[in-house]
Design goal:
five-stranded parallel β-sheet, 29% helix, 427 residues, globular, alpha/beta, homodimer, 22 strands
């Protein structure tokens, strides 16, 4: 029995490893088109910033590790250019053909620059891959650009802005829509805009890039799309989100073919609808389920609450579930509160934390939240995410038994203060 | 309609405030036997340590604030010595009688030193009240003790140990049982014991204090009991935990009489049994429900997962739910894992975090957890607490959508690594 995996990042390697754990006899080969295997692409902005000294620091495991420890063959520099499902073969760029019994597609995502005139100029970069980050680093060292323009105010755009600001550049972010972080939320946008201004980063909203701006350096942090061409040509169905459609067991419409990671869509646990939200954590979980199922187990991945987090110039921004506007669009009778409260007593240097919570007025069900502050953001957004995953109501959330001691929190955690305000709107 | 509340700390003042919000016309009087109203007793160890300069910093609101802003009369220095329920009266130490229609008992807890010979000596202190902390502070300044012995390795004992160590004393903690932090858990005890040793605090386990040790200074941080005498004499029922028995609406067995806070028991959401676990956060929530119900609403407090947290010499220790031994005692087929993982990538100065998770082998239901580390403890223990409150299984917990970005976490959060290990034991 032979398992072939296309792609050797979070999803692909999690899939291969999960399959191996279940079936020691499986023949497993992972094809990776780049020379780089198993590295944390999320660390690339910190390489540009200078905090990560060498890209090797981002490598989690080597191909040798997979061969030796997990009996998994990882073939770098091996691009799969076609899938012939009737023959159960993948075709490599070298013309070679490799047979499979089970196939897992983890082709990821990429910037689609085809509609952006000027994107092929030498001062235009993405920051999504090892190679792109390496080129950008060299460009910064050799050309010493003074101004940078970043297209896109998603989390990568914000991380890139901080990295380049730290490197001493004058930075402007251009965002096509009126919102940041892919969330229709005027409050959040205002908060982030004010913070960026304090950090001397310019943010231009409603500023669609019809072409590459005139600048010393341009970073493309928008136009991110699932990499579906290879799969689509093989007859794998694409969902409404534009990503590959999969079941909770990561099955595609082709028998014995699975998809996972940034190329595939998943289920949004709040809206109950398919969503495309490429993130390394989700990719790993999807990959694990795909690998387990390819190896004969029955394992489901129920979906995501849509949690994301970003730090920009000292401010942490955590988001989960739906914003009020997104929830209304999904048909909920959404209502929100926003509170600001100190995270600890003054004598433990408490700092303000902003909490936004959204619920459905009819059922009280919690629908989403945002937490913004200098610290304590990840823990609090994770509590909201956990509550969303178990479909908690505001009344249930309000009585959560959250840890309290002066070095850690106030008696009433900002989350509980927010929930209490929200509960009042529901009565 | 007149509401009388006995006690002006977290439970009593939350009760009075909740009643006021629901009924602007209610006549509300709170009797407090001490001169001190609405202060955070949890801050007392930090007053001893020196971080809190003056006890006034711990006061949340003054009696004047309650009178002016909430139309609530708070009478300090007014001890209720008896409740005459047939007459609907409370009797004060002055002999005065005060009528009530509804009564809320929040008499708190105290150290029961009756069985400890020598506890009345001038070098023996508790650290639970404003007055006790004030006396201790004066003793430290005037007598300059060099050695301190602390009875009890609960969270107050550990906080007191750090406070006195910071003040330069040689500290020994005597713990009656073989466990710390009121949790039967050899792993936790070992971990805390090792840490205390590194901080040069002596911990003596299985060391019951039959009398007060010979020392320069002794702190009693054990023998904490619910203050039920007044209520019991009035005919209010006491539960198996030794604290006042209440319904989820905080009703006692006497009509129109409620109890809340450290004097009352509550429901443990994991064991489903009554539990006495006095904590300010729980007291506030119980008080709120009591006040709302006394004012004519219907509000339940479902109970606690038993979350606690303490920091000692830089180490955070968070606990929630049941330990493996506690769970077995409750009839679960409990199984546990313990993992240690870095909380962030190395380039973001990741530090190790220990996670312990316990589940029921038959159902997979999560039963409890512990998180120990230099940081990120509160957020993680709160995620476990939230999962316990919604009766999550290990499989559900394992797919939680937790926030990931390098400044905040690793791709696989230590919680998810633990859950994954635990899931393997359940299959």
């Amino acid at each position: 029995m032979r398992l072939v995996v296309i792609g050797a990042e979070a999803a692909g390697l999690s899939a291969a490893s999960a399959a191996r754990r279940l079936d020691p006899s499986l023949d497993i080969t992972v094809f990776e088109k780049t020379p780089h295997v198993s590295y944390g692409a999320c660390g690339l902005p910190y390489f540009i910033e200078g905090r990560v000294r060498s890209l090797d620091e981002l490598t989690v495991y080597s191909a040798e590790y997979f061969a030796r420890e997990r009996n998994i063959t990882v073939r770098a520099n091996s691009e799969v250019v076609a899938i012939s499902h009737p023959r159960r073969e993948v075709i490599l760029s070298t013309g070679g053909r490799e047979r499979y019994d089970k196939l897992i597609v983890t082709t990821g995502a990429r910037r689609d620059l085809s509609a952006l005139p000027g994107a092929d100029q030498p001062h235009v970069f993405t920051m999504d891959t090892w190679a792109a980050a390496e080129r950008l680093k060299q460009f910064l060292a050799s050309r010493r650009p003074r101004r940078a323009d970043i297209l896109g105010a998603g989390y990568l755009g914000l991380e890139a802005a901080e990295a380049l600001r730290t490197q001493g550049l004058e930075v402007t972010i251009h965002q096509k829509t009126g919102d940041v972080l892919r969330r229709r939320d005027p409050w959040l946008t205002r908060l982030v805009a004010d913070h960026l201004e304090r950090c001397r980063i310019r943010l231009l909203l409603d500023s669609p890039a019809v072409s590459v701006p005139d600048s010393d350096l341009v970073i493309i942090a928008c136009l991110y799309r699932p990499n579906t061409l290879l799969a689509a040509e093989a007859g794998i169905e694409i969902g409404r989100t534009g990503a590959l459609r999969v079941t909770p067991r990561m099955e595609t419409n082709l028998h014995s073919v699975y998809a996972a990671g940034d190329c595939a869509e998943t289920n949004h646990l709040v809206s109950g609808k398919p969503v495309w939200m490429p993130l390394g954590t989700t990719a790993g979980k999807m990959g694990r389920a795909a690998g387990a199922n390819a190896a004969g187990a029955r394992q489901s991945f129920p979906g995501i609450t849509g949690t994301s987090i970003v730090r920009v110039c000292g401010l942490g921004i955590g988001l989960t579930g739906l914003s009020e506007q997104q929830a209304k669009k999904e048909g909920f009778d959404a209502v929100s509160v926003r509170i600001e409260a100190r995270d600890r007593p003054r004598y433990f240097q408490g700092v303000p934390v902003s909490v936004q919570l959204t619920a459905d007025r009819r059922t009280g069900r919690l629908l989403g939240g945002a937490v913004i502050g200098e610290r304590g953001v990840a823990g609090r957004i994770n509590v909201i995410s956990t509550a969303l995953a178990s479909r908690m109501t505001t009344a249930e959330f309000e009585t959560l038994d959250l840890a309290y001691a002066p070095p850690f929190s106030n008696v009433w955690d900002p989350l509980l203060i927010g929930a209490r305000q929200l509960a009042k709107l529901l009565h």
